[in-house]
Design goal:
By secondary structure, the protein is α/β, with parallel strands linked by helices. The chain folds into two domains: about 400 residues, Alpha/Beta hydrolase fold, catalytic domain (Rossmann fold), CATH 3.40.50.1820; about 220 residues, Immunoglobulin-like (Sandwich), CATH 2.60.40.1190. It has 13 helices and 22 strands.
Length: about 625
């Protein structure tokens, strides 16, 4: 490895850690024990907690052999979205690999299990979009810190060989570990299951769950080729295996297919790292979907090769039986999230080993109810959110906005005087991305929705108002103009629609969806719009100019090809940006969601902010 490569890798790691607010140094671990039990003869499960960022604690279960002759490997399991230490694959892998002689740590993700305000699982509590976006970056950094502290805990155990620590992540956990294993070189082997297909601008991961994945990944755009940089850091750290089902919808977003996508990513990583032999490895299962592959025989064989299980050999692993998870769950009364219990997904997994016992919620809880009540302010998501808000620095990248349901009818008349608008929060401030001189005139925008329409109201402070374009689909951006660029599918922000309206009400519409093969302009159905200066004649600047208003209602049926639901359901997230252009005098350009300094185009869907439709 060249000196330049070492410097680059070091700087990349520091940049990622800084961007996601991972504390340096890591917090003092301060582990605490809360008793243990034996899930089966020869295996001990310890109930423990350890410290993480923001003064919080992480509840966890440690699985280990009851008797151990020498130091062994350690494994950290990072759960998928909605998962926690109660998830079937979490305790199954804990018992499975403890049988192999490993020491295995599983823990609750933020907002789940004993880190949930109701001590509930599968809540996805951290999905609710929070503003500003810095909170999403901080949430991702917390998840990385949780995993790094788990590594620290294992390294402090006397029975663990600190040079033989592996980390296994599934789904959201694969995203967490894609970053953790890039920045923490104490991890020797890393497995990313049901994911790992880190892609480029506007791709799946930019548009995925905003709080725990989308916004944090997008915030790393400064790396350039983010995926290649991240996997280059993996190559410098140690071996990584990315394992997926070929029918997993998460890895099928690239039209080339998963295998071609990963080959290209391996080539880019090799070119960047200069270490072709050390790029990540891949494995694929034909006909299979989204599963925690680290409980299966192929991944166990790879782990044996990298970490050396004391009680297993490659030959013994090959001879071991497998368990059909859906049958095992039914026989033992083990709950699996209904959306994942299908044969295509987790239910069809053939997990290594046989006779893994079901564990109860009582067994896997670190605290009894009274203890939890005393400790919860150091555990739950709401406690993190309060503390994180108090530490905001303003470094967030993309804004977020709640679109509230209109409490009463709205008349589109260009006045914004309907009572309903009082319920809408302000989408502000606007950013003057390319400002050089002149007055920064403010733009106030509010949005509401009902079962038929998205309502948008612009109030533009302006002492020099002009508009010359009167023909439909004319170049209105040369006038005083407002614009809405809207993407109904957050996983495909490049599929967007434009509504561009000048001060006298002339509108231009464009359809940028990948399925659209019509003309450059587009005729949306049923859009109602009006400005305070509505006219069929040009508007010249006047000494009395002070402000102008645009009010419009956009029917949701226009977005049926791209939106998940028509109309959206409460909690649904879309992407959009709001723009304003100037006229002749003081021709400023501004946007609600800021644009990267090097980009001089409103047509930048990766910079679209996030909006959430809420039922209040």
């Amino acid at each position: 490895m060249s000196a330049d490569s070492v410097r680059n890798a070091h700087e990349w790691r520091l940049q990622i850690l800084r961007d996601l607010f991972v504390p340096s140094p890591l917090p003092e671990l301060r582990p605490a024990a809360y008793g243990n039990f034996e899930p089966e003869p020869g295996i001990v499960a310890e109930r423990i907690t350890y410290s993480t960022a923001y003064g919080l604690r992480v509840p966890a279960i440690l699985y280990r052999p009851k008797k151990q002759a020498s130091k062994s490997l350690g494994i950290v399991v990072v759960n998928g979205h909605g998962g926690d230490k109660y998830s079937w694959y979490s305790f199954y892998s804990g018992i499975l690999y403890a049988r192999a002689g490993a020491v295995v740590l599983t823990y609750d993700a933020m907002g789940e299990g004993e880190r949930n305000v109701r001590r509930a699982s599968e809540t996805r509590a951290h999905d609710k979009l929070q503003s500003p976006p810095e909170l999403a970056q901080r949430l991702s950094g917390l998840m990385i810190t949780d995993a790094m502290q788990a590594v620290s805990y294992l390294r402090g155990r006397p029975e663990v060989d600190s040079k033989r620590i592996g980390a296994l992540g599934y789904s959201m956990g694969s995203f967490v570990l894609s970053l953790t294993c890039a920045v923490d070189d104490r991890i020797h082997a890393c497995v990313l299951a049901g994911g790992g297909n880190l892609d480029g601008p506007g791709g799946y991961w930019d548009g995925s769950k905003p709080m725990c994945q989308g916004i944090p990944y997008e915030s790393l755009s400064f790396l350039g080729d983010r995926a290649a940089v991240i996997y280059t850091l993996h190559a410098f750290r140690g071996p990584t295996l990315v394992y997926n089902g070929l029918d997993d919808e998460i890895v099928r977003h690239d039209p080339r297919g998963p295998e071609a996508f990963f080959r290209d990513l391996q080539q880019r990583t090799a070119a960047l790292s200069g270490r072709r032999e050390s790029t990540f490895q891949t494995g694929f299962e034909p006909g299979a979907g989204h599963r925690p592959w680290f409980v299966t025989k192929p991944v166990a064989l790879w782990l044996e090769q990298q970490l050396d299980f004391p009680n297993w050999t490659p030959a013994s692993i090959e001879r071991m039986p497998v368990t059909h998870i859906s049958e095992w769950a039914k026989t033992n009364g083990v709950e699996i999230d209904k959306s994942y219990a299908t044969e295509k997904r987790e239910g069809g997994a053939l997990a290594l080993g046989a006779g893994v016992p079901p564990l109860t919620r009582g067994q896997l809880s670190v605290f009894d109810q009274a203890q939890w009540e005393r400790e919860k302010d150091r555990l739950i998501y709401e406690a993190w959110l309060r503390t994180a808000r108090a530490q905001l620095t303003g470094r967030g990248v993309l804004p977020a906005y709640e679109i509230r349901r209109a409490p009463s009818p709205i008349v589109i008349d260009g006045k914004l005087d309907d009572t309903a608008w009082k319920a809408a929060p302000l989408a502000a401030p606007f950013h003057f991305n390319w400002w050089k001189s002149g007055e920064k005139e403010a733009t106030d925008v509010r949005m509401l929705w009902d079962d038929q329409n998205l309502y948008v109201g612009f109030y533009c402070h302006d002492r020099h108002i002009s508009a010359a374009v009167t023909e439909r689909h004319g170049p209105v951006s040369k006038d005083d103009c407002v614009e809405i660029f809207l993407s109904p599918n957050p996983q495909k922000p490049a599929n967007y629609y434009t509504f561009e309206i000048n001060a006298i009400g002339t509108m231009l519409n464009r359809n940028k969806a990948d399925w659209w093969n019509g003309p450059a302009t587009w005729e949306p159905e049923g859009v109602s719009h009006r400005t305070s200066l509505q006219s069929s004649s040009p508007k010249l600047e006047s000494a009395s100019d002070q402000d102008w208003v645009v009010e419009l209602a956009i029917p949701f049926r226009n977005f049926a090809r791209d939106s998940a639901h028509t109309p959206p359901t409460p909690g649904e997230i879309w992407r959009l940006n709001l723009y304003r252009t100037g006229g002749i005098t003081n021709p400023q350009q501004s946007s609600w969601s800021p644009l990267p300094p090097q980009v001089h185009s409103f047509h930048t869907p990766t910079a679209f902010g996030f909006v959430e439709f809420v039922d209040r």
